[in-house]
User: Fold these one by one.
Assistant:
Number 1:
Amino acid sequence: MTITPQPGIMEIELYQSGASKIEGVTEVVKLSSNENPHGPSKRALDAFRQASGELHLYPSTDHAELREAIGEVQGMDPARITCGVGSDEIISFLCYAFAGPGDEVLYTEHGFSMYRISALAAGATPVVAPETERRTDVDKLLAAVTEHTKLVFIANPNNPTGTMIDEAEVARLADGLPEGCLLVLDGAYAEFVDGFDAGKAVIDARDNVFMTRTFSKIYGLGGLRIGYGYGPQEIIDTLNRVRGPFNLSVPALKAAEMAMRDVGYTEWCRVENARMRDWMTAQLDAMGVAVDPSEANFVLARFEDQAKAESVDAHLKTKGLIVRLVAGYGLPSCLRITVGTEAACKRVVAAIKEVL
Ligand code: PMP
């Protein structure tokens, strides 16, 4: 008997996550997955610990308390929020709900790998539009739209480039899409941008734009897997049909609620990230390493070729520093370096200096 998977499934490349170990090295600093080096808010940790008394109970199915907290802090109507196991799960809900065989899912050249994985898993066809100088290009995206395009994903700021486009460009993209096509703004790194609404104003003025957000980055809860989506009521109502009823655990819900409410800590993380990111960018620049101005919690360092990027990566490993080779994103001569603590950033800069 042959058990045959659905078309598209075997085209999915297995996701390569950032390494967390180096053979023979005990003291490693992981700067390969854009995690918050300072961890989550203390209030979120306390809430997580308290939740251990409720582990025999099923979690809430509607995530009302978490949606209430997100709504208050982000100025969103809680009814127009849905929560998932990381924003990865929201991305896959979108593909399952809105794209199937014969439909196209469009994203940018160096776009996040889950767009392709989720499109293929849903039986849809992934389509890639070129960027310009590692930046989302609205004209090129619009030129790649066909009558089959159902979803368009852009991450703003983008991973792994760190670049972003402004609100007018996002609005132009939304307004250029045909009827029946949804624009998804992936705001995984939105909180790192000072005063940025992640596209909320664009969403609130339209019915064809949606956003995904995560607790894995600035909120420091990647290990708990929580994300959310915000957008038009009909889209939320549709996604809630695809969503498993108990998709988020009791500790995840409690910790995320407190992390969202601890706005002072989030702001501290934003300011500290910007300080070290801008310092690291200036240091790399002074060494002659090309870096695009990043708005996120990582920088993309560009070397002359793949061999150089690999040799810098190998040298960093000997120092216990794990960064990310992003050849899989079509950037073979680049290293993506997460902004770590001040000490970690100084170690990375010193180690790169040694090898150049
Ligand atoms: N979008 C982008 C652009 C990302 O970089 C990531 C994480 N690497 C995600 C979404 C997914 O994050 P999570 O599932 O942890 O929310």
Number 2:
Amino acid sequence: MQHDATAPTPPDLFTWEFATDPYPAYAWLREHSPVHRTELPSGVEAWLVTRYADARQALADQRLSKNPAHHSEAAHGRGKVGIPGERGANLMTHLLNIDPPDHTRLRRLVAKAFTPRRVAEFAPRVQELTDRLIDGFAGRGEADLIHEFAFPLPIYAICDLLGVPAEDQDDFRDWAGNMLRHPGGRPPGPGGGQAGGPRGGVARSVKKMRAYLADLIHRKRADLGDDLISGLIRASDHGEHLTESEAAAMAFILLFAGFETTVNLIGNGMYALLRDPGQRHRLQQALAAGDTALLATGVEELLRYDGPVELATWRFATEPVTIGGQRIAAGDPVLVVLAAADRDPERFADPDALDLSRRDNKHLGYGHGIHYCLGAPLARLEGQTALATLLTRLPDLRLAAEPADLRWRGGLIMRGLRTLPVEFTPE
Ligand code: HEM
């Protein structure tokens, strides 16, 4: 049963129902307890910031550090606040874990290599990858869009962009699947997938990915190309370069930050379109007429309506701060709930409605402030290409499961489906 926005008591968070549809609970929080202290499933206590204005302010507040060392529980070795398996893996010094001035230096260097122009030039390759994946199931009349499409597309795209040779990219698909305990890796067995199950699989996969990236960076240094890893090695700012370990951490965070997010953009976005025939037909008509304006505003709206990142990554108060009238003690973790902020009626007209042509749409799906998503141009390219190609090639695509039977992944930071079964007339 969904939580009633007028109920006097706080909703249960992090239950199965909440994972399926968190929006009624977020409406309650925005209304009654907009900066809400709660115990997370890991046992860590954190503040949830749910109103748009407070969320935007918190994302830009430099007194909220990204460095987990500021967590009051860090000193006691409690609190699980990182990427699974990254601890001790020497990949910790990445953009989402550091503050200025280190963040400013690293972000400036990576921005020199990961430019909007590089992404624009990558568009034909994303189209090719998209078509190749759809070719794999278009003749069958049914597919699981997460497993066969949304999951592999971003991993192959980022591997290509970074310069991971084609013959090694399936290993990345397996490691990424293992790291996220996601069923999207190749099935275990001869020639594909990894045995060993989820336990230990995460750490092992992070270790393998790290070793591979370190070795690749080392090889590229001796033989620079046009790829992003070569760009990261070449990038310099006032005579400063990335060290090899910084370049490895950077490649890793690009993979990690750009992977599950994009899987969920495609999965949640397609799911929302399949459940709203009016909006979906409008988009199909615009695409058939060669008009891509609705695709561009539409993908932004899908990010606002049911975005991939439910809660922004961790922040920790470095001194007492007040957000939305609530005092937060130094050392307390703060989680900005992007999904709640982006449905705030104080900011968005008719926030629970999907309106692909919404123009006043400064959503927080890519964050805000100095940690604003570095990969937004790539995510937009992949999201737009994926949705437009699916809807054009398979025009009568329909859900092959009841919405109530679909399972959501239920992780803390991300929001995404485990599977998205569809049917369509075979090509
Ligand atoms: C940061 C969302 C795709 C790379 C962020 C943040 C959000 C976000 C909300 C800020 C987190 C915070 O402040 O705590 C998304 C969404 C995506 C997406 C919704 C897909 C639809 C990508 C892609 C890449 C990428 C494709 C790269 C290949 C990054 C990086 C950061 C970041 C490196 C850290 C930036 C910094 O700390 O300065 N993203 N992201 N993201 N994203 Fe994305």
